[in-house]
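Reminder to self: tokens first, then the designed residues, so the page reads top to bottom the way the pipeline ran.
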């Protein structure tokens, strides 16, 4: 039997709860209604997209520097 931290052969979505500012919530609701998709689906898509694009930029460099135990400051 696997626990929640060990990925099995099929990865299931994980439910999380977050707190966001009201104006961000309103923007998500309006955008999800406009696109005809659920709020949950839109939020998951935006989070995945943000994480994917951040992996190609400055965050990759920061992660590499922090893995070496050294964080350079500009």
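Designed residues (74 positions):
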């Amino acid at each position: 039997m696997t626990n929640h931290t060990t990925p099995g052969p099929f990865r299931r979505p994980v439910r999380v709860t977050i707190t966001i500012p009201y104006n961000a919530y309103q923007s998500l609701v309006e955008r999800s209604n406009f696109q005809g998709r659920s709020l949950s689906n839109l939020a998951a898509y935006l989070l995945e997209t943000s994480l994917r694009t951040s992996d190609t930029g400055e965050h990759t460099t920061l992660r590499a520097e922090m893995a070496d135990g050294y964080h350079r400051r500009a």
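The CA atoms of residues 13 and 26 lie 24 Å apart.
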